[in-house]
Amino acid sequence: MPILETRALCHVYSQGTPFEKTAVHDISLAIEEGELLGVIGHTGSGKSTFIQHLNGLLKPSAGQVLFQGQDIHADKAALRAVRFGVGLVFQYPEYQLFEETVFRDIAFGPKNMGLGEAEIRERVYEAASFVGVGGELMEASPLELSGGQKRRVAIAGVIAMRPRVLILDEPTAGLDPAGRESILANISAFQRSTGAAVLLISHSMDDIARFARRMAVFHEGRLVMDDSPARVFDRADELKQMGLTVPMATEIALALRQRGVELPESVYTVKYLKKLLLERRGEARPC
Ligand SMILES: Nc1ncnc2c1ncn2[C@@H]1O[C@H](COP(=O)(O)OP(=O)(O)OP(=O)(O)O)[C@@H](O)[C@H]1O
Ligand SMILES: [Mg+2]
């Protein structure tokens, strides 16, 4: 059984008004226990609208969301279970930091869950270490932190609830390359060590190519591909028609193939491309 699933989910904004807009059409998507699913799609394709249904922030206009097999809108207990079990990190989550200290900000979620002091403390320190926020920052004001540190604290606040599914909407937007890399590595380590499922929305094909084992592609409110990164990136022409790009390594491999270099399809990470090219160089070397 998938940990989280949507069935024929639709969302219409401002229904029955002249501003009516169907942002999500008929999406059925199952997230399996412990997997890392990447979600891509052009701006306005419905990604953020979709994920806000996954912890009950938005209610479907039609269709269902099931968490651990149960409809999340069945009753209050089901909605409470999904609020704590599915953690949602918004785009630019640092704008939502509001407590006086880093500790209190990270502790906000666990406190709401009604946990005792000792357990809250344990979870706050655990979550902070997952995102690389040192204990020395716990009594600092979030306002004193750098942009990257604020982002980490905001993510820790969700991780501290120990969600079974962690959903992140563009967690690396606006960060420098080193910051992006380290946050993605933290998220990946969180997924591997806790067994939580992670859904990662990103505009960066390279990031998705390296971290996700499965990808969902949104286009104009619909789910148009749901497959392994290799198979999705093999459909480079279709992606380009949707205004999307392919990873840099795929682009280079395509260009090399057009120039007659024999390379397999499904090249989507720099690491793999490098290995293939080095192997070729090895073949050509006289022995
Ligand atoms: N609160 C709202 N009221 C009305 N329409 C909205 C609202 N929020 C989003 N939309 C519309 O719904 C569609 C999907 O928007 P959404 O924000 O879900 O896309 P997205 O894929 O997350 O885009 P981006 O990559 O820019 O974040 C867009 O056409 C958008 O204008
Ligand atoms: Mg969005």
- Please describe the biggest sheet, giving its number of strands, its sense, and whether it closes into a barrel: 6 strands, mixed
One letter per element, helices H and strands E, the order comes to: EEEHEEHEHHHEHEHEEHHHH
Care to count the β-strands? Answer: 10
- Overall shape: globular
Considering the protein shown, what is the CATH homologous superfamily of the largest domain? P-loop containing nucleotide triphosphate hydrolases
Brief summary of the model shown:
With 287 residues, the protein is α/β, with parallel strands linked by helices.
Q: Keyphrases for this structure?
A:
41% helix; 11 helices; six-stranded mixed beta sheet; binds magnesium ion; binds adenosine-5'-triphosphate; 287 residues; alpha/beta; Rossmann fold
Walk me through what this model shows.
Helix content is 41%, strand content 21%. It has 287 residues and is an alpha/beta fold. It has three domains: 1-89 and 165-178 and 189-235, 3-Layer(aba) Sandwich (Rossmann fold), CATH 3.40.50.300; 99-162; 247-287, no CATH class. α3 crosses α4. Bound molecules: adenosine-5'-triphosphate and magnesium ion. Adenosine-5'-triphosphate binds at residues 13-14, 21, 23, 41, 43-49.
Write the layout of secondary structure elements.
Layout: E1 4-13, E2 21-31, E3 36-41, H1 47-54, E4 62-67, E5 70-71, H2 76-85, E6 86-89, H3 102-112, H4 117-130, H5 147-159, E7 165-169, H6 177-194, E8 197-201, H7 205-211, E9 214-219, E10 222-227, H8 229-233, H9 236-241, H10 248-258, H11 270-284
Parallel strand pairs: 3-8, 3-9, 6-7, 7-8
Antiparallel strand pairs: 1-2, 1-4, 4-5, 9-10
Magnesium ion (MG) binds next to helix 1.
